[in-house]
Each structure stands twice: as C-alpha cells, then as structure tokens.
Amino acid sequence: MKNKTRIIELVIPSELGYEKMAQKLTGAVAQQMGFALDRVDDLKTSVAEACLNAIEHGNQLDANIPVRVLFSIDADQLAIDIEDQGLSGPPPAYFPEPDITRMVTGQDPLGHMGIYVIRHLVDEAGFVEPQTGSGNQFRMVMHLNHQKEQ
Amino acid sequence: MLIKKTETWLRQIGQDVIIDLSGDVTNQGQEAIHSAYAEALQARPGRIFFNFSDTEYINTSGIAVLIKIVMQAEETGYKIGLYGMSSHYQKVFELVRLPLYADVYQTENEALTEP
C-alpha cells in the first residue's frame, strides 16, 4: 500500500524574524525524517531564505499578511512550499548568479543571493504554479537517499 | 522580536583587532557591525577579524552587510578575516565567494598565527 503524504502547515506573519520559526520547524521535521545533519542545515537555511523573500517581496513586509509554509512529507522526500500574495508581481523568469566582484566594485547592488544559495543547498527549487490560483509559490524538494542517510 | 540583536565587542591582540559578534547576523545588525568596524579602524590595526563563534543565525542580508565591510576594507587596503562560523555557514560563504575578499579560518588561533 502506498504511503500517504503527510502535511504540516505553518502560517507566519510577514515580519522579519518569523522566518526563524519556519527554520526551526524545518529542522525538526528534517531530523525526524532522518536527513543527515548537513542536509538538515541546508534545508533550514533554504527555508529561511525562501520565507524572507516571501516576507519582503511577496508580502511587502505587511505583518497582517501571512506567509504559508507547507511541509509535504513522503517516505523518500520532503517538499516545502512557501506561499505569498505576490504583491511585488510575478517572479523574474531568470535569476542571475550573484557576482561578488561586481558587488564589491559597485557594479551590482548588494544582495539578491537568496535564490542562488537555495538552489545550491537543496535538490530541487523553483517557483511553481500557485495552488491557490494567485500569488507566488516557491517549492523546495530534498530527497531522502537511504543509502546515504542511514 | 525574534531576531536576536547583533552585539559586538572589540579585542586587541598584538597588532590585530578582533570583533566578536553575538546574536543574529542580518541587515538589522548593519549599524552595530559597521560601528564596530569603524572603531576597529581607529586602532590602526594590522588585521581585522570577525569572530562568529557566538552567532546562531546568518542570512544573506547579513552576508550583504559583510560584503559592504569588505568594500570598505578594499578601499583602505585592509584584508578582513572571518572565523568561528559553523561548517554550514562556511559553505554558504564559499557559495557566494566571500573568501575571494575575506580570509576564512576555522579558529581564532589559526587566524592569529597566519602570517
């Protein structure tokens, strides 16, 4: 019999700092699932960064607008969806790799490193069609490789 | 307030100044970090190190604050040293190529004994 996906939902206000709540829950879920500690840290940082994007851009730092964090737990993977209102518009089609040299020399603005970091820490990451029909939804997936983790 | 306030302490060891950080390293700690760096410069040190041993949470907005410090250091001819962060945050620093502009060490002893 196929295992059913288990869902955990967290709703946080769009206020800086609350991404740490999502980060803590991510750590608890990932450890419980048996991810190696380095992968747990990778997930925690990725969720914090994704929530920060949702808080700052998607919900424009309006504490009255929530960010929804959905954990979908399967036997072989953890998927985490971050949903916001999309108030800054649809996400760019392309996220250039941040260039620290161009930042240091003033050619590029500081920042814009979150998506790049996430994509290098988790197995899959990207914007998906929002299941609510509006706003933005960012999905991250980490696969449980039992041969590696156990 | 869920963000732990960034706090800084300065220590001088020989010709070097160490800026000990505690709390979270985010853009909300920008003023504290920049003030500490400005104070460190007044000592006309040989090198300036940031000690992350007592920090828990670093996000990319905090890394942007560090890059701004690096920009200032480049202008004044200083090389910044970083140590005490977890292996995870070392990895994140390497991802954004911060080691191109700041020397990264495992421990204070390693940082201070590097010629």
Describe how the helices and strands are arranged:
The complex is a heterodimer of chains A (150) and B (115).
Chain A: E1 6-13, H1 19-33, H2 37-58, E2 66-73, E3 77-84, H3 100-104, H4 114-121, E4 124-128, E5 136-143, H5 146-149
Antiparallel strand pairs in A: 1-2, 2-3, 3-5, 4-5
Chain B: E1 7-13, E2 16-25, H1 30-42, E3 48-58, H2 60-76, E4 80-83, H3 87-95, E5 102-105, H4 108-113
Parallel strand pairs in B: 2-3, 3-4, 4-5
Antiparallel strand pairs in B: 1-2
Radius of gyration of chain A, Cα only, in angstroms? Answer: 16 Å
> Domains counted in the coordinates of chain A: how many?
1
The percentage of residues in β strands of chain B lies in: 25-35%
Give the H and E element order of chain A.
Answer: EHHEEHHEEH
Distance between the termini of chain A: 23 Å
The overall average pLDDT of chain A, rounded, is 93
Annotation keywords:
heterodimer, A: 150 residues, 36% helix, disordered C terminus, B: 115 residues, 5-stranded mixed β-sheet
What's this model, at a glance?
The complex is a heterodimer of chains A (150) and B (115). Chain A has five helices and five strands. By secondary structure, chain A is of the alpha+beta class.
